[in-house]
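Title: Prediction job returns without error message
Component: structure pipeline
Severity: low
Priority: P3
Assignee: unassigned

Description:
Job completed but the reporter wants confirmation the result is attached to the right record. Sequence as submitted:
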Amino acid sequence: MTLQGWLQIVLFAVLTTAIVKPLGWYMANIADASRPMWRPLAALECGLYRLLRVDPQKEQDWKTYAFAVLWFHVAGIVMLYALQRLQPAMPFNPQRFGAVEPILSLNTAVSFVTNTSWQSYAGETTLSYFTQMAGITVQSFLSCATGIAVAFALVRGLARHGVNTIGNFWADLTRVTLYLLIPVCVAGALFLIWQGVPQTVAPYAHAATLDGAQQVVALGPVASQEAIKLLGGDGGGFFNANSAHPFEDPTALTGFVEMLLIFLVGAALTNTFGRMVGDQRQGWVLFAAMGVLFLAGLAIVYANETAARPAFSAVAIDQSASPLQSGGNMEGKEVRFGPAQSALFATVSTASSDGAVDSMHDSFMPLSGLVLMANMMLDEVIVGGPGSGLFSMLLFVIVAVFIAGLMIGRTPEYLGNKIEGNEVKMAMLALLIVPAFILGLPAVGAVVAPGIAGLNNGGPHGFSEMLYAYTSGAATNGSAFSGLNANSPFYNLTLAAAMFAGRLLVIVPVLCIAGTLAAKRRVPVSAGTLPTHGLLFAMFLVSTIVIVGGLTFFPALVLGPVAEHLAMLRGASY
């Protein structure tokens, strides 16, 4: 560990915290459909409503809202699938890429529509500029806006009393896209272009190497896709190497800004929540719980990636940081970033649902890999994706107040709402969907021939690669250990199922909870009401997340990264 590395981490934490309140206020205004926003965009907003024949003031009950969300996802999957299959007939295809294989097209369509961004392909050798722009980039905007809209709906359910409506999905989708995503992404794309990220539809460049060979240099409209992939929690790389590629992340400054973009919306939504329920302290409790889990995981990853590797120590290789070397574990990392920024980026990526990477997680130390998987296994509660992080955290809040109610022997309450059987059942259903696919699919993949065929490694590390893939898919993260041959019918179909379930089978119970809470009468605060705005509840919430969420996966983690760590200590290899 170095002073420079810790200063980078502290600066990131300070800037993220500073952004929470102003951006949270701004998004609370976006959530109020009756509040006018920017005048230049207001006319466009009204025009979209007329085109869609939507009355933004006409709100929907939870079933209508959920149907709109489901229909929108299915329509997006069909459109993105069609774009890939019809790619040769589309414009902006100077490399003349052919149609994407059907099962891979389905996997990719489900991936980006569900805000996962799992990629079983190399973007620069598979997708045309048109597919990247009209397909991948558009879905990155829409899937992000959908997640934020669902979070708005759940918060309205908590804030309202005695009503049957939770907002209008089409108005939420439109306002989030127009007033939040587009302005920030325009600024982000311009910054990336200034730093050296390409933005062009010209054909790939050809260059002569020093020994006279010809090299093809992939280009494309990268900056515009890069901005929304980071802000929107999608994380999909224009290039196969993702943000380790110098055209996606050319400098240490762009890497730092990219990490801020990843956390921007998810962190600030906690303050939006506090404002919408009328008590900002409630939002700060959620932010504090997220911060504790994030910093704990980051400390473990940073310590492991800067420590000496046992195999090198045995032969007296110098692994300490010095002016001539970064020190620590540099396998799979870019020299221009070093272990500190790589550890920070990896933790940010997996603590959110973004999935962008600037180093190869397959090369991280075993316990670092454990933390990266655990970040995703906790149902996106450590900041998480835009919207999905907030509503996943609120699911754990419902479970936490229910457990607290059992302890003190009274009906649990939260923000003036009685938490009863229906809410607890729906919360547990949503929280159990992700573990079912994370644990169930590797159990199948580890014993059937198509699953085993995709492994490049045996033993605990091979199992970790498979477990990471299904964790990433079901948690809608999209990052990979990069050691799994996932472009096969078996993995493409099973990962598509995990991504679909991890997104939509969670959203429906969340909206059901929003509807039932909104219909309830307000419960006045009494002497027996559990305070949920202080440090004590934040600690209780963290404990609930770790015990209820984290221990579910402990046996699987023991079979993978823990076993590999123990084998590494005794000198074994796989």
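Comment from assignee: result matches the submitted record. The first helix runs from residue 3 to 31.
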